[in-house]
Amino acid sequence: MKTNKAIFRINLILIIINIFLIAIPFLGLLFLMVLGAFQILFSIVIGFQFKKLPPIIKTNYLVYLTFTASVFYTFILVTNGYLDSGQQLITLCFIVSICLAFQNLFITYKIQKI
Q1: Domain ranges of the chain
Q2: Chain CA centroid to CA 14, Å
């Protein structure tokens, strides 16, 4: 489908921009939130195609959604003061977010190859 190829290309461009912005840490972290917002939108689009996906992509997608929900829930807990917002926790959340960005890229790559 053209939609899947467009999603993959946009996702790839956003990740490449983010990689370059990591050289300026603050901008890289800010753009990571923009990338995450786009990838959540991409995940919603992928969710509408869920029944058509092969089992391996379904598994990757469900793992991605689980970890994304976990990171989002952790940020909510930190924001509301239920968790200590220590530097280690924030760093871990950003590292996991970067890994999730690449997992989303992998999923969109596999879908556009179908």
Answers
A1: 2-112
A2: 11
> Model confidence over 68-81: pLDDT tens digits?
998 888 888 877 87
b/e code 2-23 from CB counts within 10 Å (16+ = b): eebeebbeebeebbeebeebee
Is the backbone of residue 24 left (phi > 0), alpha (psi -120 to 50) or beta? beta
| Amino acid at site 113 | K
- Residue located via tokens 């959540």: 40
User: Do 49 and 111 touch, CB atoms closer than 8 A?
Assistant: yes
Does this model's pTM top 0.85?
Answer: yes
Q: What was the pLDDT predicted at 89?
A: 74
* C-alpha to C-alpha distance for 114 and 109, rounded to whole angstroms: 9
Neighbours of 111 (CB within 10 A): 24
Q: Which two tokens stand for residue 76?
A: 């909510």
